[in-house]
Write a structure and sequence with these properties.
Layout: H1 2-9, H2 11-16, H3 31-34, E1 53-56, E2 60-63, E3 66-69, E4 72-74, E5 79-81, H4 96-99, E6 107-111, H5 121-129, E7 133-137, H6 139-151, E8 156-160, E9 167-168
Length: 170
């Protein structure tokens, strides 16, 4: 009978009677929580210079609407011609550009053409020692990976060799 009476009285009466608070129990903030404020300062607005690969052909790439002929190095805010002819030309020297960037890139995506090709392990080890992760893929997948990473605001770069196929409109 006493339990039924407490149920009718509501949460305040149940607490006063020593019962367990119900789901509707409201917690009040502590004194120090009343005066804390959260402030957000935007240091740099979203950059309109984000690189996005629109498509590729056997001759080059379309990046942000611009055609780039031949192999290219896509940096966070710049596109450069990359002096490699095939995956065999990717070496410590050809990757030195990516190690010199400031701020340092987190990940380098390498597109090796139509197929995923194995690079010399010493080259990959040197990049890891510099704190740069390297992802080696065929060029179509490397383009998609680079676009995904930059859409997530990751500091990424790409070294791309054109494949034989054509795709426009990624």
């Amino acid at each position: 009978m006493a339990v039924a009476a407490l149920r009718l009285l509501g949460p305040a009466a149940r607490r006063a009677a020593g019962g367990v608070p119900c789901r509707a129990h409201r917690l009040t903030p502590a004194d120090d929580e009343l005066y804390q404020r959260t402030r957000v300062t935007v240091l740099e607005p979203e950059s309109p210079n984000t690189m996005f690969i629109d498509g590729y052909t056997s001759r080059g790439f379309t990046i942000n609407g611009d055609l780039v002929v031949g192999p290219c190095a896509i940096l966070p805010r710049t596109i450069l011609q990359w002096n490699v002819g095939s995956y065999r030309d990717i070496s410590h020297e050809s990757l030195s550009l990516f190690r010199l960037l400031e701020p340092q890139i987190e990940i380098l995506v390498l597109g090796t053409g139509d197929r995923v090709e194995r690079l010399h392990p010493a080259v990959l080890k040197q990049m890891r020692e510099c704190g740069i992760a390297v992802e080696v893929q065929d060029t179509p997948n490397a383009c998609a990976t680079f676009n995904f990473l930059t859409s997530e605001k990751r500091v990424a770069a790409a070294g791309l060799i054109p494949p034989r196929g054509t795709y426009m409109g990624m």
